[in-house]
C-alpha cells in the first residue's frame, strides 16, 4: 500500500478538494431533495485546520458555496453537525436561547479502542486483520437490528479512516427524533430465560465468527492469565472443575469445548446459567460497543464521509453492506495514492486549466473515476439513489392522499 507522509498533507489536500472530493453527491445527500426549505443552509459543518485550529458553526448556501470554502480552507478534518433553527454561521446574531439544534441523522460511532479489554492482538489506535472482525460483527449486528427490528431503510456505513466505523441512519422519521433516546450499552452481560430477540439474533451472528475470531485469532483461553478473565464471568460453583479441565487441555478451542460440555452437563442448580452462560461470554467478547454520547446528543458532531484521516492518510469511505466480510481497512485508498493516480498535471495543462471556462471545469470534475476512490463513490451513489427513490414514493403517496380529499 502507498506510504503516506503527513508532511505532504497540505499539498495533497489542495489537489484532493480541487479534483477528487465528490461535492455533487455530498450535496445531494445533505440537501435531502430540498423538500424542506433551508435544510442544507441550516446544517452545521465544522472544519479542523492545520495545527488543530477548529472552526465550528460553518454553514453554506449551496454546493458551490461549500466547494469554494473547502478549497479555500483545505480542512484536515470535516465534521457534520445538526440542522439548526437558524443558519449556524449567523448564530451570534440570534437572540440568546433561540438558536436550537432541530434534527439530525441517527448516528453510531464504533471505535476499536473500546474493545481493548477483550482484544489481545492490538491496543489503543492500532488495528490488524485479527481484530477487525469485531467491526464486521458490530456492523452485522447493528445493521440487522436497524433494518429488521426498526425498519430503517437508509443506512450509510462509513470507515472512519483509522480504527472504527460510523453509521448514519438517514430515514426521515429518524432525523426528526429528538435527543431523548439511548441507554448506556456498556453494561456487562446478564441473560435470563426471557432472552430478547435482538440478543438471540446477535448471538446467531456472533456464532459464525466466534471460533475463528475469539478462539483462534485472539486465543482468549491461551493461558491462565486469560482464562481467569473468563472464570470471573462464570458461577463459582464450577471454578474448580474449569481450572482442572483447562489445565489438561492444550488450546483455546479445547478449553472452550470443555466449558460448553461442563455447563450443559451441570446446568448448575443454584446459579441458573444453562446455555446462557456460554452466550454471555460470547457477547462479553464480541458485542458492539458504542460511544453512546455520539448517538444521544443531537448537537454532537461526527466526522464526515470522504474526510481524510490526518494520521493514516486514509479516506473515510462508505462500506458496501453486501461485502462487509470482504471490507479491508488496509486496502482503503490513502490521499497519497489517489492523488498519485490522478494523471500528474504537467505545467502546460495547469496553465490551460487556469484559463478554462466554468462549463469546461464542470465537465472535468469526474476525475475521481480515474482513481481507486471510484468504487467507494459508487457505493455512496447507490445509497443516494435509494434515498431519492423512497422520497419520490413518499411524495407520490402524499399527492394521492391529497387527491382523495
From TrEMBL:
Family of this protein: Belongs to the eukaryotic-type primase small subunit family.
GO biological process: DNA replication initiation; DNA replication, synthesis of primer
NCBIfam families according to UniProt: primase_sml
A Pfam family that the UniProt record links to this protein: DNA_primase_S
Cofactors named for this entry: Mg(2+); Mn(2+)
Residues making up the signal peptide according to the UniProt record: none
Protein name: DNA primase
Phylogenetic classification of the source organism: Eukaryota, Metazoa, Chordata, Craniata, Vertebrata
Cellular component GO terms, alphabetical: alpha DNA polymerase:primase complex
Record GO terms (molecular function): DNA-directed RNA polymerase activity; metal ion binding
Record-linked CDD domains: AE_Prim_S (cd04860)
EC code(s) of this entry: 2.7.7.-
Zinc-finger among keywords: no
Reactions catalysed, as given in the entry: ssDNA + n NTP = ssDNA/pppN(pN)n-1 hybrid + (n-1) diphosphate
Keywords from the named record: DNA replication, DNA-directed RNA polymerase, Metal-binding, Nucleotidyltransferase, Primosome, Transcription, Transferase, Zinc
Amino acid at each position: 500500500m502507498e506510504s503516506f507522509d503527513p508532511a505532504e498533507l497540505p499539498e495533497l489536500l489542495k489537489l484532493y478538494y480541487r479534483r477528487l472530493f465528490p461535492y455533487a453527491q455530498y450535496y445531494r445527500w445533505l440537501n435531502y431533495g430540498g423538500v424542506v426549505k433551508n435544510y442544507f443552509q441550516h446544517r452545521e459543518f465544522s472544519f479542523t485546520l492545520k495545527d488543530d485550529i477548529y472552526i465550528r458553526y460553518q454553514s453554506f448556501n449551496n454546493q458551490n458555496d461549500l466547494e469554494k470554502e473547502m478549497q479555500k480552507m483545505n480542512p484536515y478534518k470535516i465534521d457534520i453537525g445538526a440542522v439548526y433553527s437558524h443558519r449556524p454561521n449567523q448564530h451570534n446574531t440570534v437572540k440568546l436561547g433561540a438558536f436550537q439544534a432541530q434534527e439530525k441523522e441517527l448516528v453510531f460511532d464504533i471505535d476499536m479502542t473500546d474493545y481493548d479489554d477483550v482484544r489481545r492482538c492490538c491496543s489503543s489506535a492500532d488495528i490488524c486483520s485479527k481484530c477487525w472482525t469485531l467491526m464486521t460483527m458490530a456492523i452485522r449486528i447493528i445493521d440487522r437490528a436497524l433494518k429488521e427490528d426498526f425498519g430503517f431503510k437508509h443506512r450509510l456505513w462509513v470507515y472512519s479512516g483509522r480504527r472504527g466505523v460510523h453509521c448514519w441512519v438517514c430515514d426521515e422519521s429518524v432525523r426528526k427524533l429528538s435527543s431523548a433516546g439511548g441507554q448506556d450499552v456498556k453494561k456487562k452481560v446478564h441473560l435470563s430465560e426471557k432472552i430478547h430477540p435482538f440478543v438471540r439474533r446477535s448471538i446467531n451472528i456472533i456464532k459464525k465468527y466466534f471460533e475463528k475470531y475469539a478462539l483462534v485469532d485472539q486465543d482468549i483461553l491461551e493461558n491462565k492469565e486469560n482464562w481467569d478473565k473468563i472464570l470471573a464471568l462464570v458461577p463459582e460453583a464450577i471454578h474448580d472443575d474449569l481450572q482442572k479441565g483447562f489445565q489438561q487441555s492444550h488450546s483455546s478451542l479445547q478449553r472452550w469445548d470443555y466449558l460448553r460440555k461442563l455447563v450443559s452437563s451441570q446446568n448448575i442448580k443454584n446459579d441458573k446459567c444453562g446455555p446462557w452462560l456460554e452466550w454471555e461470554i460470547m457477547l462479553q467478547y464480541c458485542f458492539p460497543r458504542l460511544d453512546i454520547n455520539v448517538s444521544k446528543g443531537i448537537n454532537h458532531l461526527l466526522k464526515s464521509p470522504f474526510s481524510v484521516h490526518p494520521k493514516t492518510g486514509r479516506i473515510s469511505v462508505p462500506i458496501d453492506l453486501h461485502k462487509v466480510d470482504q471490507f479491508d481497512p488496509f486496502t482503503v485508498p490513502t490521499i497519497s495514492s489517489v492523488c498519485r493516480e490522478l494523471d500528474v498535471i504537467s505545467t502546460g495543462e495547469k496553465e490551460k486549466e487556469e484559463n478554462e471556462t466554468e462549463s469546461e471545469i464542470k465537465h472535468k470534475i469526474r476525475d475521481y473515476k480515474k482513481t481507486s476512490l471510484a468504487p467507494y463513490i459508487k457505493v455512496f451513489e447507490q445509497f443516494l439513489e435509494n434515498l431519492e427513490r423512497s422520497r419520490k414514493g413518499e411524495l407520490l403517496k402524499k399527492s394521492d392522499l391529497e387527491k382523495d380529499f
